[in-house]
Amino acid sequence: MTSAAIRLEQVTKTFDGRVVAVDAITLDIAAGEFFSLLGPSGCGKTTSLRMIAGFEHPDSGRVYVGGRDITDVPVHRRDMGMVFQSYALFPHRTVVENVAFGLRMREVPRADIERRVAAALAQVALTGLEDRKPSQLSGGQQQRVALARALVVEPPVLLCDEPLGALDRKLRQQMQFELKELQKRLGVTLVFVTHDQEEALAMSDRIAVMNKGRVEQVGSPAEIYEQPRTRFVADFIGEINILDEAGTARALRPEKIRLVTPDGARVAGRVETANYLGGSTLLRVRASDGSSMLVRETHAGERASRTPGDLVGLTWSDQDTVALEG
Amino acid sequence: MTTRGRPSPIAWLLAPAALLFVLFFVLPFGVMAAMSVFSGNPVNNPNAFLTTRHYERFVFDTAGIYHDALWATLRIGLITTIISLLIGYPLAHWMARMQSRLGHALVLMAVIAPMLTGIVVRTFAWMTILQDKGVINTLLIQWGLTDKPLPLMYNEFGTIVALVHIYVPFMVLTLTGVIGRIDERLEQAARSLGAGRLRAFVEVTLPLSLPGILAGSLLVFALSISAYVTPSLMGGTDVLTLPMLIAQQVGTSFNPNFAGALGVILLLVSLAIVIAYNRILARLSGEQGLA
Fold first, then answer.
1. Closest CA to B266 of B226, B207, B216
2. B188 with A55: Cβ contact below 8 A
3. CB–CB contact B188 A88 (8 Å)
4. Which domains, ranges and CATH numbers included, belong to chain B?
5. pLDDT digits 0-9 by tens, A47-58
């Protein structure tokens, strides 16, 4: 399967002439990359995806796929696969008819359609459910039909708008593995919209964190987590402590803090709450000056020992803190 | 779910509707059907006897008007339904997909407004527009586009124009509800898979709105074949529909028994058409129809 690079160049989209959904963003997505657009609702991630798909036309800026300017190409000629949040399966069509739709629109010969649909269904482990209607399938199965329907036409680009949002946690995790594996196997460029930071960290090659129509930071999951550039990114991804050191804000992850005896520690305070999370315990420590800090105590070996009311000391090394802009 | 044999306490709320249905539909229809097989009124005429002569009169149609009246009724009903669908569907689709709430409210008002004026008023309004000395013909003659007035009313054309105007809101309201419940993303999915806008509509939205088309068409068809005021006023002497014939039999010929037979025939014929229509649409959509 071929794959194509995507470039958004200074793309702006305004709704109703007032609300700026996407504000002059520029993004480069490499061919074959698993790229996530991550941010809270209303940050412009879905609008950006819909501009790549062609459902929205940018007010200004250009969209390129495989080096070709497709800004003015209508949706049905863009040759992209798309998986919708609610799957958008055709309820009046069977599984086979749903998956065959894109091939039928491309006027592929009937025999080829049958062969390719069967192969696509086998790929997502749905063989045997060919004649069911979408309403007769479980959420996970519907998800796979949507995936097969988008991929059967072998698009160079696959767009996913929160495709796993409707699944329960266990199934979602399983689908995360399957989707990532499928993407690597096919080599397709995948643009994935999500508000779930764990999901983005787990699946992506690179992530663009978006806020208020702008891109705050682009980087690998490790970069985004370990080297957040702005206060928003630090705060949005995982738990964070923001320290004020001589006027500059510095971010410090809770797991970088060590618990020591109160004497000679950087901060001394009392444990206010202790949330047991299985692999670790997240403590909220109230310092003597009234500020509070989050500390992650990992359980390697012995069980957590701190309980609310305990007096603890906190320390960390300066190289674990990251300077933030804004 | 409620258990079998123990109806929900709310079931009692259906009682008024059930009572109305029995009192004003089942009972009158029973009386009408009974009257249609008697020679006279058996309540005050002891010599009345059972007979099939009213049905024979219709079937053999020696006067040559009853069959014509039936065809005219069905023809007017069918054409009115088709035109209402052609006008109503795009309007309903536009309304259902409208983003602006204010816009939706305004269009809804515009659609419903004609229903707030009575049928008689609206029919008279059409008369002032369509008659020989009406707005259209006066203008056409003034501009020299024609020397004698076009026959715009006192015929089937005028009747259908007025009926469509009166019944389009029923079509629009029925269709808007159904189309509004179709997820827009289905059409978007079809487009992302390579279907143009028209193709996506034909493949997805149209088949999914078939239940609405069915319901709206049946409603408009049922209303137009039973219409009396509009065909009487707009049709003049040119149009004779079954409801007009029935009114004649009751009002001027004093033959309620024959009127009853005509009523039963109208009901049976329209029922047959409805069932056939439902079957065809159900087959088209590959799903169960409404009835």
1. B226
2. yes
3. yes
4. 65-285 (1.10.3720.10)
5. 999 999 999 999
Q: How many CB pairs under 8 A join A and B?
A: 68
Residues whose CB is less than 8 angstroms from the CB of residue A244 and which lie 6 or more positions away in sequence, other chains included: A250
Q: Residue A234: inside a domain, yes or no? A: no
Separation between Cα atoms, residue A118 and residue A129, nearest integer Å: 11
Contact between A75 and B191 using a beta-carbon 8 Å cutoff:
yes
Nearest-angstrom CA–CA distance, B126 and B153: 9
Q: Is the pLDDT of residue A167 over 90?
A: no
What are the pLDDT digits (tens) for A237-255?
A: 988 998 887 788 899 999 9
Residues whose CB is less than 8 angstroms from the CB of residue A233 and which lie 6 or more positions away in sequence, other chains included? A209, A216, A217, A224
- Which pairs from B27-34 meet CB under 8 Å and 24+ separation? B29/B267, B32/B260, B32/B263, B32/B264, B33/B260, B33/B264, B34/B260
Tens of pLDDT, residues B153-207: 889 999 999 999 999 999 999 999 999 999 999 999 999 999 999 999 999 999 9
Q: Tell me, what's the ipTM?
A: 0.84
Please determine, for residue B119, whether its predicted confidence score (pLDDT) is greater than 70: yes
Q: What is the three-class DSSP state of B97?
A: coil
Q: Report the CATH number that the domain containing residue A272 is assigned in CATH.
A: 2.40.50.140
Closest-CA residue of chain B to A97: B203
What radius of gyration do chain B's Cα atoms show?
Answer: 23
Give the confidence band of A96 by pLDDT, cuts at 50, 70, 90: very high
Looking at residue A221, what DSSP letter applies? Answer: H
Phi-psi region of B56 (alpha: psi -120 to 50; beta: other; left: phi over 0): alpha
